[in-house]
Write a structure and sequence with these properties.
2 copies of one chain form a homodimer. Chain A is built from 14 helices and 11 strands. Chain A is α/β, with parallel strands linked by helices. Chain A has 2 domains: 4-166, 3-Layer(aba) Sandwich (Rossmann fold), CATH 3.40.50.1970; 169-351, Dehydroquinate synthase-like, alpha domain. In chain A, the strands form 4 sheets. The first copy, chain A, has a 4-stranded parallel beta sheet with strand order 4-3-5-6. The first copy, chain A, has a 3-stranded mixed beta sheet with strand order 1-2-9. A two-stranded antiparallel sheet of chain A has the order 7-8. In chain A, helix 6 packs parallel to helix 9, helix 7 packs antiparallel against helix 8 and helix 7 runs parallel beside helix 11 (256-275). Chain A binds chain B through residues 30, 72, 76, 79-80, 83, 86, 88-90, 107, 110-115, 136-138, 141-142, 144, 146-151, 223-224, 311-312, 314-319, and chain B through 30, 72, 76, 79-80, 83, 86, 88-90, 107, 110-115, 136-138, 141-142, 144, 146-151, 223-224, 311-312, 314-319.
Chain lengths: 353, 353
């Protein structure tokens, strides 16, 4: 699998942990910090330790697993640990984990002393095909996702297939939603290939293609002025449902991919309703997603709150909700303004499936 | 006075508030936010209101005056107000105030929704000749100055002489320290001109020259990889003394310029001691600065803590203290490593003056 070149950094796929060791040895860094969470600290950090000789020189910063750790309070905690450990401007931050680790670690690094270098070692399927590429960093305030962040590119991304082997099925499914989205927004052939594949163990080739699609989009539009908005398909409704679940579901809540799958069904319906997605393709999308993801009950009484969450979405302008929809499978359409009534109706559509 | 062009934005000097109105009218911004502090809200905001017709559409965010407002907690307060006011990505932040307002407002804007546009309207001499130009934003954690920040350029800077008229003498002196520094590091003729001028009312021409010097340096080195470090002359010791005063002096504490004046005396002494600044020029610098700035007692017992503050300085690498010194008046020298003993000796020199 060939190494991809992003805006100004490489994305490695082959023997990536060895590439990481090379990167560390070649660089002139003064200090190394590894950001992990309790899971990656247990399951992934040992693989890194095996590869790196002088690992005692590395300082480990461990956060709790879960979206809650992306809150500004935890970010302050990371900054204070960097201060206490004596991190200087020539330090390197290695983000070893899923999207929470890379988003938070990227933001903390991009603002510490006005920016230190960081690399991503994504350990979940979701972060391999989504968060680790594209240079978005972000943290949450009051459960508003990524409300604070920067556009800062990592110095390299190391995608290692071995991390996926220990991943629970539900986490594989979570990443799969973004892969399916990549097909839906700009590659019908890839969408068809995914449909025919063993999706509980996505191959390295499929992952490589997903990263390639995302990478092409972000190279063309690093700061989300235009076509990068294509990646938001499913995310207007999906983010709102995800935030709602995080705030209200006790114990277990929706994974990112589960929420985005709901969002993609609602926004496929909006695409049919508003911009001419065919009924056959709407049904195809719904059949595939409903076959993969569990049913989730979104009570009608939640609509008001869901809409209010959508209004805080970064993609809006002048308070109007801006959705990315599909003209057809493989062809996105950005900047479609949707009304509260339409958005609620799309949620009703999902509920009646 | 000609408009200066910085990295990718203009710096206006003539009729600047009218230029600001033009900028607002020409832009396609959806919302306007003015960040002020209690002083600029009282003395400077009315001048803005007079110029702008539909000022009712502007949301005002007011912070307390003083360095304490640059703490991360106040930054979170600004972010939350932007959320509550419904700021979107097409919003403009207008930073009306001194360095605290521009550093904090620039950081809050550069990270809100991954970055909204901002402009600076500096209202103190210090912020006109220093903070408003160069694209550094920053906030403090645990009184460590600018430990968190970004390099993000404003969209424009509006330098209006009329704001200086109501400024207390002590605040004029605070800005003057940076102007004197500009002469010392790279323009001996300008240093001589300053010596002969009425420094309690620096002319627009002198201010223009200072901004021009700073602007030339930051254009050549936006991210402080090399020559921008020239601007750090006086700031290694100066920042430490300033932080120390902020933490320990009850009630009134050192202004930035007063602290930098002490720092420049100490670092001029280090320049004489280490890299050959002549004794005559050392004495000239000391005479000018001692004539302008009040004596401040730095107790010898503070040395340990001052050194520990210097060790946290962003400019260091591998824990070694990196100073910018002077080879002669008008010629800086970067990356001079100074030992704890040398730094303490420079403070003793200041104390015995």
């Amino acid at each position: 699998m060939n190494t991809l070149q992003s805006i100004d950094y490489p994305i490695f796929f082959n023997d990536s942990l060895t590439e990481l060791v090379n990167f560390i040895q070649k660089g002139s860094y003064s200090r190394f910090f590894v950001l992990t969470d309790e899971n990656t600290g247990k399951y992934c950090l040992p693989l890194l330790k095996e590869k790196i000789d002088n690992f005692n020189n590395f300082d480990i910063i461990e956060i709790n697993a879960g979206e809650e750790s992306k809150d500004i309070d935890f970010c302050i905690g990371v900054w204070k640990m960097l201060i206490d450990f004596g991190a200087d401007r020539k330090s390197l931050m290695i983000n070893l984990g899923g999207g929470v680790v890379s988003d938070l670690g990227g933001f903390a690094a991009s603002t510490f002393k006005r920016g230190i270098d960081f690399v991503h070692v994504p350990t979940t399927l979701l972060s391999q095909v989504d968060a680790s590429v594209g240079g978005k960093t972000g943290i949450d305030i009051d459960s508003i996702k990524n409300i604070i962040g920067t556009f800062t590119q990592p110095k390299a991304v190391f995608i290692a297939h071995e991390f996926l082997e220990s991943l629970p099925d539900r986490q594989i499914l979570s990443g799969l939603a973004e892969m399916l989205k990549h097909g839906l927004i700009c590659d019908a052939a890839y969408w068809n290939k995914l449909k025919e594949s063993n999706l509980s163990h996505p191959s390295q080739e499929l992952i490589h293609r997903s990263v390639e699609i995302k990478n092409d989009v972000v190279i063309a539009d690093p700061k989300e002025m235009g076509i990068r908005k294509s990646l938001n398909f499913g995310h207007t409704v999906g983010h709102a449902v995800e935030t709602w679940s995080l705030m209200h579901d006790e114990g277990d809540h929706l994974s990112h991919g589960e929420a985005i799958a709901i969002g993609m069904i609602c926004e496929a319906w909006l695409s049919w309703k508003k911009i001419g997605l065919s009924e056959a393709e709407l049904n195809e999308i719904v059949t595939v997603l409903s076959g993969l993801y569990p049913r989730y009950v979104v009570a009608e009484s939640a609509n008001e709150e869901l809409y209010s969450i959508m209004q805080k979405d970064k993609k809006n302008q002048n308070g109007r909700i801006n959705c990315t929809l599909l003209a057809k499978i493989g062809q996105y359409s950005i900047d479609n303004i949707c009304t509260e009534a339409e958005l609620c109706e799309s949620l009703s559509y999902y509920s009646t499936l």
